[in-house]
Amino acid sequence: MTTIVMTGGSSGFGAIAAQRLRRTPGVALLTGARVPAAGSLPLDLTRLGSVRAFADSVRERIGDGARIDALVLNAGVIRPDDSGRTADGVETAFAVNHLGHYLVLRLLMPCLAERARVVLTTSGTHDPATGAGLATPRHADAELLAHPDRDPDRHAAPRRAGEHAYTAAKLCNVLTARSLSAHPAMRSRRVAAIAYDPGQVFGTGLARDLALPLRIAWSVLGTPLGAPLRGLNRTLNTRAAAARVLADLALGTSAPPGGRTYAALRAGRLTLPDPSAPARRDDLADALWCTDARLAGLAA
């Protein structure tokens, strides 16, 4: 039996991927959701206490001695600004897109099987070369991302500040995949870590907190009406294509070559570009891992 644990499996392309995984013979899928449905577990990534409870529930479900074959950290959100704060006092987009997932990862790392797969959904918006139009990351300082009011270079325009919160959190996901791949315990178990950029996928729940006109456009472009745009821009993908690759990565039927920790979906095909220059820096990855641990209440 292959055991897969997943976040972000209740809407968007994550829900399509989860459906495929559930239909795959020999796969047991455990999902976490803010509003759990049948077969899922409660998980609110804005509350570190909920993350800890989720990890406890996963360990209880899989039982003593059982292992996780794939951990898929897919949930995400973009907000109209960076003013939201979680119950723990952390900026909301950073908590959902990165810090909550970091804690899920750290708590479940001891349960990862030999040759397990860890997939962190990131975004090409972390790289200025993608030309996505969003405010690109100025840094990957988890302290400042958790508390942007302390950032001396914080964007004055709320919309740009919200974009930066999102893109910088996605940069952190790429750096975390880099750190995980170099972790001695993970290397000894030959665990594969991959930061997966699905491209821009309209019609998902990612934009649920944005203004109504943007939510409407996001929804409409996720229908067949958005097909002409996808023909012009390689970074635009359908929910079905993004889901197919996410499921393939979780199942191990699609796997980047050894040493590659970043993959991007372009025109419906999985490619292996280099991530941004900051995403390739070991010093940033090491610093982020340690700061995340402190923010999450863990030892580095």
UniProtKB/TrEMBL annotation:
Signal peptide: none annotated. SUPFAM superfamilies: NAD(P)-binding Rossmann-fold domains. GO terms for molecular function: oxidoreductase activity. Pfam families: adh_short. Keywords: Oxidoreductase. It comes from the Bacteria. Belongs to the short-chain dehydrogenases/reductases (SDR) family. This is Short subunit dehydrogenase. The lineage of its organism: Bacteria, Bacillati, Actinomycetota, Actinomycetes, Streptosporangiales.
